[in-house]
Structures are given as structure tokens and as C-alpha cells.
Backbone:
């Protein structure tokens, strides 16, 4: 197949570009796919599912399925009846997911109704995994789940466009308190509770010399003894926010939902040259090289020791940060994975 032949791909995404999952898994790849000859259409699932929105979405999605040479469903667990209709129109369907979407988030109360809802979601996911022409996942952990249901599974990790994540300047590390940074959506602000005690301890030890900065669309609720700076998140300013950090944090409880997460926070921190301190859960074990690009503490005491060591040693922070950026450029960048996505979509068309 000629490299520059124009081919048609439609993406039915879970969210629009303002939400991280769809932005990282689809929207950030579009300029690179367009350069490789793809004609692209993207249609996000509606935020508010009114009756009119359902009808409108169904009509448009079916039109796109008919138009496209290959159809990509990004994290969409649609009703089986609708999925069957899509497959009848276009059987060259790729399913992409980057979370353990079959597991309920731990912050939700595990009621019988919630359990039943996630059982239905798992049934939909399993149906999609069996029927898809190809499956793309964001981590090896999710690949193990998908490979039990499908032979064609490709790991394309959640990745960053290195052009949009410049290295943090060295001179920016020498002024004021050391900044422990966390960036993320309000749904997962509760992750910070995992390290509330270690943060409180180092704040007491390093009074005035360390601060926690949270970038999100909602303020976290943490112990008042932890010095906190909050900055509202804005689209397309991630690199600027990350440059205001000295150390990136990614605490996680060890549960099924978190084991399926793809460590994108760590990837973002590392891309701009920050060392990372993260819980040894899920894709963090794949992304971070302990002692080289960050630390993976397993206890509150290890969290304190890791953060204290990085606080005291600016050269270690820089050395780890440079190693971290190199790892992201080589293994977790769109520059590396866009050609792989292009090749996979072409293979699907040829099936």
C-alpha cells in the first residue's frame, strides 16, 4: 500500500479534546496521521445524553462507520445492539482503551447496583474485545486482560508529543521552596490521600522549604499542615504547569482500577525532565526505572526517605530528570508511536 495514499479513519472518542484520555489516545496523534496521508474525522460521545443527543449521535456514528476505511472506538462501551450495527456496516473496527474500565473506581461506594452496572460494562467490553479487528491498549497490564479475549492486541502506551513538552530550564530549580507537584483530574484527587501522612511529616521537617502544588479543576482536601498551592488547570498549558514543579508525585492505592491506569502523570513529569516519586502500581512499574528516573516507595517511610533525598540533592534531581526525559523520548513519545499507529491502521484495512 502506498505510504501517501489517502485513507479514511474515523474515531469515535469517549470525550472531546478537553479530557485527557481522548486527547492523549486520539487527538494528539491527528496531525501526525494527517501527514501520513490519512483523511480523519473525529466524533466525541455527547456530554449530556438527552433523547435528541442519542438520536443525533447514533445517526452520525453510523454515517462515519459507512464513510471510514477503518473505525476506531476509543474507550466507548456502547450498548451491544448498537455495536452490532456498527460492525455490520464496517467490520474493520479497532478498540482502544487505557484504563481498567471493567472495574469500579475505589472512591465509589460498592453498592449492589454499582456492582451490577460494572458487570454489564465488563460484558460489553468482552464482546468488543472478541469482535474487534484489532485491540490497542495503553499498558502491558491491560494487554494481559485483552489477550485472554483476542489474538491481535497491540500495546501503544499513553504518550506525549515531545515538541509540546520542552525540558525544564536548569535555572528554574534554584529559587524558593522545593515544589512537589501533582497534576490531574478532580476524579482522582483522592490519590493524594495515600501520602497525606508522609507529606505532613516532611512539611514539619522542612518548614518553609517545601510546598505541594496541585494543578486540577478542583481544590484538594488535605491536612492544613501541608503547605499547599493550588492552580486551576487549563487546556494546552500542561508544560507550563509542569515547569513550576521540582519533583512529580503519583501516589496510587493498589487496586484493580489503578493497576489498569497508564501512568500518564509520570510520563508528563518525566517528559519535561522531572524526577518522579510514584506508588509501585500498574504502569508505573513499566515506565519508571527505580533509582535512575525516580523512586517507587512501598511504605510511608520510603515515601519520606525518597522525597527527603530529592529535596536535599538538586544534582540528583537534575540527573534523574534528564534520564527520565530520555526514557520518555525513546519509549513513551508520539514521535515513536505515531508511525506504529499508522502502520496498525493500514494493517487493519488489509485484513
Residues:
Amino acid at each position: 500500500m502506498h505510504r501517501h495514499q489517502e485513507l479514511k479513519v474515523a474515531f469515535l472518542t469517549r470525550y472531546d479534546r478537553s479530557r485527557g484520555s481522548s486527547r492523549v489516545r486520539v487527538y494528539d496523534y491527528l496531525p501526525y496521521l494527517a501527514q501520513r496521508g490519512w483523511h480523519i474525522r473525529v466524533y466525541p460521545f455527547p456530554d449530556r445524553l438527552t433523547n435528541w443527543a442519542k438520536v443525533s449521535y447514533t445517526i452520525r456514528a453510523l454515517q462515519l462507520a459507512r464513510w471510514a476505511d477503518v473505525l476506531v472506538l476509543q474507550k466507548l462501551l456502547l450498548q451491544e445492539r448498537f455495536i452490532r450495527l456498527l460492525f455490520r456496516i464496517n467490520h474493520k473496527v479497532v478498540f482502544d482503551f487505557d484504563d481498567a474500565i471493567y472495574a469500579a473506581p475505589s472512591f465509589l461506594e460498592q453498592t449492589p447496583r454499582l456492582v451490577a452496572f460494572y458487570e454489564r460494562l465488563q460484558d460489553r467490553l468482552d464482546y468488543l474485545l472478541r469482535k474487534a479487528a484489532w485491540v490497542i491498549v495503553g499498558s502491558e497490564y491491560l494487554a494481559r486482560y485483552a489477550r485472554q479475549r483476542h489474538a491481535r492486541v497491540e500495546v501503544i502506551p499513553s504518550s506525549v508529543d515531545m515538541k509540546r513538552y520542552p525540558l525544564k530550564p536548569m535555572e528554574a530549580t534554584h529559587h524558593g521552596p522545593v515544589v512537589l507537584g501533582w497534576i490531574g483530574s478532580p476524579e482522582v484527587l483522592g490519590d493524594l490521600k495515600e501520602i497525606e501522612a508522609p507529606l505532613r511529616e516532611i512539611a514539619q521537617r522542612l518548614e518553609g522549604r517545601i510546598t505541594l502544588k496541585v494543578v486540577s479543576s478542583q481544590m484538594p482536601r488535605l491536612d492544613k499542615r501541608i503547605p499547599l498551592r493550588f492552580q486551576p488547570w487549563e487546556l494546552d498549558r500542561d508544560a507550563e504547569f509542569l515547569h513550576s514543579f521540582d519533583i512529580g508525585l503519583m501516589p496510587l492505592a493498589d487496586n484493580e482500577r489503578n493497576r489498569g491506569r497508564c501512568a500518564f502523570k509520570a510520563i508528563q513529569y518525566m517528559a519535561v525532565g522531572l524526577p518522579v516519586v510514584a506508588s509501585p502500581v500498574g504502569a508505573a512499574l513499566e515506565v519508571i526505572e527505580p533509582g535512575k528516573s525516580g523512586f517507587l516507595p512501598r511504605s510511608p517511610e520510603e515515601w519520606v526517605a525518597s522525597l527527603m533525598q530529592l529535596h536535599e540533592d538538586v544534582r540528583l534531581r537534575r540527573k534523574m530528570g534528564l534520564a527520565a526525559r530520555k526514557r520518555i523520548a525513546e519509549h513513551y513519545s508520539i514521535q515513536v508511536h505515531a508511525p506504529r499507529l499508522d502502520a496498525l491502521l493500514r494493517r487493519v484495512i488489509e485484513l
User: Anything to note?
Assistant: The radius of gyration is 21 Å. The chain is about 40% helix and 15% strand. Residues 7-159+334-350 form a domain with the Rossmann fold fold (CATH 3.40.50.2000). The first strand starts at residue 7 and ends at 13.
